[in-house]
Give the backbone structure.
Amino acid sequence: MRDCVALNSDYDLSIIRTAIFMEEFIEERVKLIRSLADKADPFIKPRLIRLAERYEHELWVRRRPAFGRYRGSLNAGSSSLKT
């Protein structure tokens, strides 16, 4: 029984590490996209800014309490909600 608790604990720790890694990845991606937008031509700049806003929204969703976890992810459409 004790081994099962340890495995669950390691699994939970793995999930937490993955979540932290994803948040850090998204934060760095936003910085990169915004720096590219600063140098982009007028046609591409708004598209890059919208993309950065989508990533920022994903961070906001990830940092909300669990009841809002499935709303507004990058894979969902802009107007559709997953339940």
Notes: The CA atoms of residues 72 and 78 lie 7 Å apart. The longest helix spans residues 2-39.
